[in-house]
């Protein structure tokens, strides 16, 4: 399979897209007084060239200014204060972090990336064959847990394709991304574009795309059912399919519709392509239900799909919520790409770390999504001395990360909304909810 995909994509010895990792924009180009307009979602120039270099659209945005402010305090500690302030401007720049990461961590090896795809696909079909062969209620629950995790692993590899960290070959990224994501009912380009928006606006109350906080006014305007399903387990862990269709409260649009507010006019063809691929996979599942029977398709695919959705919602939520200390969200002049990215969290998943391609090593990924997943751990270790207290060491997991369920439950009880006012805000708790601490 790998040989076919590579040959179809015309893979040749690849030139480096970047001779060196992107460097900070010079201060001569952007003086310290320049900032992004706070009311606009950051969007780089997205004109689509004939060769469709999607990788260029999803790395650290070139238009973000990396400002060295005179008022920055060492390690986020203001004069006269004894405690670390996570909302204070950091004493380092994005370029400082980049410079600490070894150059080889930025190198993308398409053969290595494809080896992970082959590994995961073999495991997926192997698990399905074993479960179908034994076909008993002792094996099925084990299969559902394992296969749901493997579907999630396939998503992570498709996620790397969307970021361009899979390879420097845009065609290879697109082919593999569509095969992987369509197989688990994810519209590749629709998701890729909205995920790009998430990375470029993370930590911004209004402009972030995934798991962003609701303002108190918006939170109070929600009907009771919507409010409770957003923060009452297990409903938030089943949110992803609904997000793809309807987005989050307060936002409109669909990942399947080319005219959605999520997309620019020159991205319509990409969105249509991905929606067609999604539809083809849905049709294949319907066809298989006539051949194998709907119950068998449910057991082999449907239940593992639900497990995948729960993995995705759990992981993405915990990378941005649930720390023992409150973490800030920003508006207006206080937001920057760096400060927003520094509120992400690394998580340890025990044995699952390798299975889902170290996606728990999330801080450096959020700041530099062009780094391949197999280099994230080394890049993180190199960056820690620069990050200092802005890096929060994850709690070590047992072989299976059951402790994370407690973190989700705790966060859902207290992280409900943020103030309608203020440029640095923190989650607040709705005391009217049953079980919420006042």
From TrEMBL:
Give the species this sequence originates from: Crepis alpina (Hawksbeard)
By which gene is this protein encoded?
FAD7
Q: Name one GO cellular component term.
A: membrane
The name on file for this protein is Chloroplast omega-3 fatty acid desaturase
Record localization: Membrane
Can you cite a GO biological process for this protein?
lipid metabolic process
Q: Where is the Fatty acid desaturase N-terminal domain?
A: 1-129
A GO MF term: oxidoreductase activity, acting on paired donors, with oxidation of a pair of donors resulting in the reduction of molecular oxygen to two molecules of water
Q: Which InterPro entries match?
A: FA_desaturase_dom, FAS_N, Fatty_acid_desaturase
